[in-house]
């Protein structure tokens, strides 16, 4: 019984082993039941997942659209910001240019309006002016080294005004009819025209001749050179002798001219340059003194006659004799008038 039972058990164990292998294979390779269960587990919420995916995709599209709109707004903002920045920069540049122009204009105005610029040229003591007036009449023979020239304009300016006053005095003491306005303007124009005009011309000539002198020094040198003219004209306008004038012209005017010539010689290199520069200055300076003494009065009288007409005496009534008429003529005339009436 045991054998058959064992055999029956063996027979029943063989199918069991086969089924067990099948089960093992099914479990080991992933059974259909497990796959179906897995599929049932995943497929139970497939519609919900599709709805969520659709909703999520829609949200993503909306987010992308919002992102694109935001990017567009940012680009527009950046563009507008660039335009605003450029406009602001343009305004800043325009304001800066305006401020710079205004500053330069105010600086140029203050340059001519500020008296401190002219202060060094007029800051001088009366003692120094007196010493320079005396030095202007003393020629110094020093050629090897440049002679010193005062760089101030107070003394020359006062000498020019003094020369104007002397010319007015000479016109008043002569037989010239005085008209204050025209006479004053003519005297000022003559004196200042000579001082400024000849100084500018001599400075240009000195530049061509390579002389070491500035414009201020030339104005000072020629201005102090007018001291001899003032002395000569003041004396000869009050003492009317031509011989006395020629003596003062040669001595006093010659000394002041020699002083200027000596200064220019010491500051110029070359014999030809010295001759041209000094000869021109000496000729102009001495001839100007002759003009002021002889020709100035006649020229001013001609100007006055041209502007205001010749000096004509005012109209006056003159008494005249009436011839005596006879009584017969008077009676005849009276009878004729009576008959007509």
Jot down its keywords.
341 residues; mainly alpha
Strand and helix map with partners:
Blueprint: H1 2-28, H2 32-43, H3 46-113, H4 119-122, H5 126-135, H6 154-173, H7 180-208, H8 215-225, H9 227-238, H10 242-266, H11 271-308, H12 327-340
Report the sheet-strand fraction. Answer: under 5%
What does the overall shape look like? flat
How many helical stretches?
12
Taking the sheet with the most strands, its summary is: none
Order of helices and strands: HHHHHHHHHHHH
| Alpha carbon gyration radius | 60 Å
For the termini, the CA-CA separation is: 217 Å
Q: How confident is the prediction overall: mean pLDDT?
A: 74
Name the structural class: mainly alpha
Sequence stretches where pLDDT stays below 50 over 5 or more residues:
1-22, 24-48, 311-322
Quaternary state, please?
A: single chain
Helix content: over 70%
Number of strands: 0
In short:
The chain has about 350 residues and is mainly alpha-helical.
Can you tell me about this structure?
- By secondary structure, this protein is an all-alpha fold.
- It contains twelve helices and no strands.
- Helix 6 (154-173) runs parallel beside helix 8 (215-225) and helix 9 runs antiparallel to helix 10 (242-266).
- The protein is flat and about 150 Å long.
């Amino acid at each position: 019984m045991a054998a058959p039972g064992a055999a029956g058990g063996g027979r029943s164990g063989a199918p069991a082993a086969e089924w067990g292998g099948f089960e093992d294979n099914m479990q080991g390779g992933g059974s259909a039941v497990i796959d179906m269960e897995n599929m049932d587990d995943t497929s139970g919420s497939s519609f919900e997942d599709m709805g969520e995916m659709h909703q999520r995709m829609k949200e993503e599209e909306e987010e992308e659209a919002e992102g694109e709109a935001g990017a567009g707004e940012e680009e527009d903002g950046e563009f507008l910001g660039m335009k605003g920045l450029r406009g602001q920069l343009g305004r800043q540049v325009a304001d800066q240019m305006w401020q710079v122009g205004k500053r330069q204009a105010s600086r140029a105005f203050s340059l001519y309006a500020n008296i401190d610029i002219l202060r060094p040229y007029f800051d001088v003591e009366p003692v120094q002016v007196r010493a320079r007036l005396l030095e202007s009449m003393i020629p110094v023979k020093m050629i090897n080294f440049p002679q010193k020239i005062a760089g101030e304009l107070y003394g020359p300016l006062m000498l020019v005004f003094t020369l104007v006053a002397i010319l007015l005095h000479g016109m008043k003491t002569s037989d010239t009819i005085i008209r204050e306005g025209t006479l004053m303007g003519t005297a000022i124009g003559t004196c200042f025209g000579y001082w400024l005009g000849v100084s500018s011309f001599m400075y240009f000539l000195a530049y061509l001749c390579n002389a070491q002198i500035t414009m201020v020094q030339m104005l000072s040198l020629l201005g102090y050179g007018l001291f001899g003219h003032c002395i000569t004209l003041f004396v000869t306008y009050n003492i009317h002798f031509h011989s006395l004038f020629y003596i003062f012209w040669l001595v006093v005017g010659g000394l002041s001219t020699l002083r200027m010539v000596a200064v220019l010689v010491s500051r110029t290199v070359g014999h030809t340059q010295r001759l041209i520069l000094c000869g021109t200055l000496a000729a102009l300076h001495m001839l100007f003194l002759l003009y002021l003494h002889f020709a100035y009065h006649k020229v001013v009288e001609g100007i006055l006659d041209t502007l205001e007409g010749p000096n004509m005496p005012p109209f006056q009534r003159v008494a005249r004799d009436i011839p005596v008429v006879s009584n017969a003529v008077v009676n005849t005339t009276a009878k004729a008038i009576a008959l007509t009436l």
